[in-house]
Amino acid sequence: MLRFVSPWSTSHMRSMPWSPGTGDAAGHNPLDPNDARFYENGEWLIESIVTPGQLLRGGDNAGDITDEQLLRPSFIIFGERGRTDLSVMAGTRSATGVIQSGKVTVVRIHNFEAITDMANVGAGGVAAGDRLSVWDVDIGGVIRRALDTVAGATAYVQAHCVSVDATALTCQFLVRS
């Protein structure tokens, strides 16, 4: 879930290519809402080291991404609910017709404020005032790239936590350039 608090005029969306992860099952399509590992609004993707220009999710891509050691920004997914057709049509198909790659819409500009459930908001998780970076976080039993507190001097600060709703397990955050 991702809900913008700041006005739309300060945000810019762009479709960028994604690649299947090293542990993804054959035929996996994260743009299909029926797929078990469907991309969620608010999930963060990082650019692949192996295939520059391709975005990957966390969890099983450890050989390709190394958390935030690279001092590179990640990109947050945001798309209109139910509009998976445009991204899917931009993808390539296997011989059996399964979408293998395509584009996903991400927020590409800084200076916005939003509320998300893609954050480590459990016990010992993020708190108001924390600097946040993007790490592999267990969200509802699935490992996703999500916001967590900055750990170490090499972490890339993506955002700052404004407030936490422990009941709804959401974090309001601010991204500034």
Series of H and E elements: EEEEEHEEEEEEE
Task: Give the overall form.
Answer: globular
Distance between the termini: 23 Å
Q: Tell me the strand percentage band.
A: 35-45%
Give the tally of β-strands: 12
In total, the number of domains comes to: 1
Low-confidence runs (pLDDT<50, min 5 residues)?
none
**Can you give the mean pLDDT?**
75
**Major beta-sheet overview:** 6 strands, antiparallel
Please state the structural category. Answer: mainly beta
Rounded to the nearest angstrom, the radius of gyration is: 16 Å
- What is the strand arrangement across the widest sheet? 1-8-12-11-9-10
Count, helices: 1
Write up this protein.
The protein has one domain (2-175). Helices cover 3% and strands 36% of the residues. The chain has 177 residues and is mainly β. Strand 9 and strand 10 (142-149) form a beta hairpin. The model has no long low-confidence stretch (mean pLDDT 75). The strands form 2 sheets. It has a 6-stranded antiparallel sheet, with no helix packed on it. It is globular, with a radius of gyration of 16 Å. It contains 1 helix and 12 strands, in the order βββββαβββββββ. The chain has one helix at residues 85-89, and strands spanning 2-4, 13-18, 44-47, 55-56, 75-77, 92-93, 99-107, 112-116, 131-139, 142-149, 159-165, 170-175.
